[in-house]
Design brief:
With 145 residues, the protein is mainly alpha-helical. It contains six helices and no strands. α1 packs across α4 and α5 packs antiparallel against α6. The model has no long low-confidence stretch (mean pLDDT 87).
Length: 145
């Protein structure tokens, strides 16, 4: 098999971090409410990202002007709205059920939907993927029973 690609180590690290943060998310949502938690999270992320970019010289007027294009602004607004719906529904799910179930359903459903969209919209093949995908579907279904 050989050594794993660099991305494998990063996704494993991501899994470990997510295992802790999903539990912390649930506690924070129960304490502050999903809307306030979402707002503070986005504010913190924006300030650290923009602040870090500004301090490193990454934000210039040339870069800012790119965002003034109406098409780009429309895309950014659409992405922000989709992100808000996604994150608020995720946080509501965390408030109602265990993060373990939320994560399993989210990941399993995402794999199935991604596979179906890949085949129908992008001409990908399901060769070699049907058994692993069905295993995930059955695993998520049994977990939720």
């Amino acid at each position: 098999l050989g050594p794993l690609p660099m991305g494998s180590a990063f996704i494993l690290l991501n899994c470990v971090i997510y295992g802790f943060t999903s539990r912390l998310d649930k506690v924070a949502i129960k304490s502050a409410g999903k809307t306030l938690y979402y707002a503070y999270g986005r504010l913190l992320m924006a300030s650290t990202t923009l602040g870090g970019s500004y301090m490193s010289g990454g934000i210039t007027m040339k870069e800012v002007r790119k965002f003034m294009n109406p098409r780009v602004m429309g895309l950014i607004i659409a992405i922000c709205m989709a992100d808000a719906v996604y994150m608020l529904s995720l946080y509501q799910a965390f408030a109602w059920i265990s993060p373990v179930y939320v994560t399993a359903i989210k990941r399993g459903g995402g794999i199935v939907l991604s596979s179906v969209l890949g085949v129908t919209l992008f001409g990908e093949t399901m060769a070699g993927r049907t058994f692993p995908i069905m295993t995930i579907v059955f695993g998520v279904t049994f977990l939720c029973l």
